[in-house]
Design a protein that fits this description.
244 residues; alpha/beta; Rossmann fold; 2 domains; 7-stranded mixed β-sheet; 8 helices; 7 strands; 20% strand; binds S-adenosylmethionine
């Protein structure tokens, strides 16, 4: 079986270096997630980032909340190696857990989480796996905790136009040299899966885009009392749930 693309070291480095060019709303979604965390500056909470990759969002969180802890959960050794290096600056407040989101990451947390966040990761799970991860996230949160997933979300209309627009954005930035060549095969394959084979069958690990409405229903059945989508643009949205 071929290696899952996110486990290739050159892809981890390539994504870490160019994420805010590859993803047209990368920093905007990070900003919105951080702005959506309702905690005072001296909060001693635990934040968990599911599929947190190289720790870019966790590092920004730890910068802003100097008494908090963050755990990056990810299935990729190369991504977590980058995260460990980045989080070393925070004197033990940032740590990593190597786990698939489909497996038991929850028992590896030292305490209930005040916040569980995720970015550009959960859409790799097929529908039943998404439902299960939302359930686990609900169980892992402390009462009053918040869940925020800033992810690729299938728009209700113009899905094909949106994936084509992102493919065009990727092509333009590959041609301009602002995305390193080692990451080009990853983007070419994204275009092949999502544009060339638009509408084809999807399996776990591919881009299993689902609408905000479908995913808010999963959050509701997981037990989240208040669910909404406070930000939605093109192919991206933030899905929010609060545990009462
Ligand atoms: C596009 S990267 C995003 C990384 C990070 N969240 C960010 O926004 O910079 C996708 C990440 O999701 C992780 N991932 C994908 N499927 C996963 C799974 N089933 N379990 C855990 N992590 C997964 C990959 O290893 C990779 O680190």
């Amino acid at each position: 079986m071929s290696e899952y693309r996110w486990n290739l070291s050159e892809y981890a480095v390539g994504y870490d270096t160019a994420a805010d060019v590859i993803h047209p709303h990368y920093l905007e979604i990070q900003d919105a997630i951080l702005a959506g965390l309702p905690f005072p500056a001296d909060a001693e909470i635990l934040l968990v980032d599911l599929g947190g990759g190289s720790g870019r969002l966790a590092a920004r969180f730890l910068d802003r909340w100097p008494r908090a802890q963050a755990i990056v959960v990810d299935q990729s050794d190369p991504f977590l190696a980058l995260a460990e290096r980045r989080l070393a600056a925070f004197d033990g407040r940032g740590t990593c857990v190597l786990a698939r989101l489909q497996d038991d990451w929850r028992s590896k947390l030292p305490q209930p989480a005040g916040a569980i966040v995720s970015m550009s990761a959960i859409h790799h799970l097929e529908p039943a796996e998404k439902r299960a991860v939302y359930q686990e996230a609900f169980e892992a949160l402390a009462p009053g905790g918040i869940f925020l997933n800033g992810d690729e979300v299938r728009p209700e209309r113009d899905y094909r136009r949106e994936v084509e627009a992102w493919a065009e954005h990727m092509r333009r930035h590959m041609a301009s040299g602002s995305i390193g060549e080692a990451f080009h095969p990853a983007l070419d394959k994204w275009i092949e899966r999502n544009v060339t084979h638009f509408g084809g069958p999807r399996k776990s690990g591919e881009d299993c885009h689902e609408t905000a409405a479908a995913q808010l229903a999963y959050l509701q059945s997981a037990g989240f009392a208040v669910v909404d989508c406070p930000w939605h643009r093109h192919l991206w949205g933030i899905l929010r749930g609060t545990k009462q």
